[in-house]
């Protein structure tokens, strides 16, 4: 029988990545999640926590929408058991969202018909984010998008 959880210890949560933090001085928040639909909610919470911590509430809604789509694409198309979600701050007015999985298939936007229930995710990412892309990795790929505060 496993030992009970110690209530004095913090519950598992986001892991701060110091390698990303060194470029801007802001920590990056990263979490490994199961490759399942329910992980989109946890990814949105991670994004909202980062935006709140960085005092960027104006990016929270757009960034949460983008991460939902990136996670959904990984769940739907990667065949991976797990994914790594990262939220970083490459500039004072910008957040970078990324999902790493083990698939080497490069995502491609497609045109969905009116009756299609799927197929609009990357078009939505492209419309809502300032830029997005894919980085091939030896063991899979990283799909990322950046959202910036709008100029006044």
From TrEMBL:
GO terms for molecular function: protein serine/threonine kinase activity. InterPro entries: Anti-sigma-factor_SerPK, HATPase_C_sf, HATPase_dom. Residues 34-131 form the Histidine kinase/HSP90-like ATPase domain. SUPFAM superfamilies: ATPase domain of HSP90 chaperone/DNA topoisomerase II/histidine kinase. CDD domains: HATPase_RsbW-like. Keywords: Kinase, Serine/threonine-protein kinase, Transferase. This is Regulatory protein.
């Amino acid at each position: 029988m496993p030992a009970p959880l110690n209530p004095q210890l913090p519950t598992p949560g986001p892991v701060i990545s110091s390698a990303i933090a060194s470029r801007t001085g802001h920590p990056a928040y990263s979490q490994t999640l199961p490759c399942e639909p329910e992980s989109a909610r946890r990814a949105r919470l991670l994004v909202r926590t980062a935006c709140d911590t960085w005092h960027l509430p104006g990016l929270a809604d757009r960034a949460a929408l983008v991460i939902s789509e990136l996670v959904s694409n990984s769940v739907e198309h990667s065949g991976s058991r797990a994914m790594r979600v990262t939220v970083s701050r490459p500039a004072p007015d910008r957040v970078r969202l990324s999902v790493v999985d083990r698939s080497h298939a490069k995502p491609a936007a497609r045109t969905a018909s009116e009756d299609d229930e799927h197929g609009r995710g990357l078009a939505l990412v492209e419309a809502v984010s300032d830029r997005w892309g894919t980085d091939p990795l030896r063991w899979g790929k990283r799909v990322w998008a950046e959202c910036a505060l709008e100029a006044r």
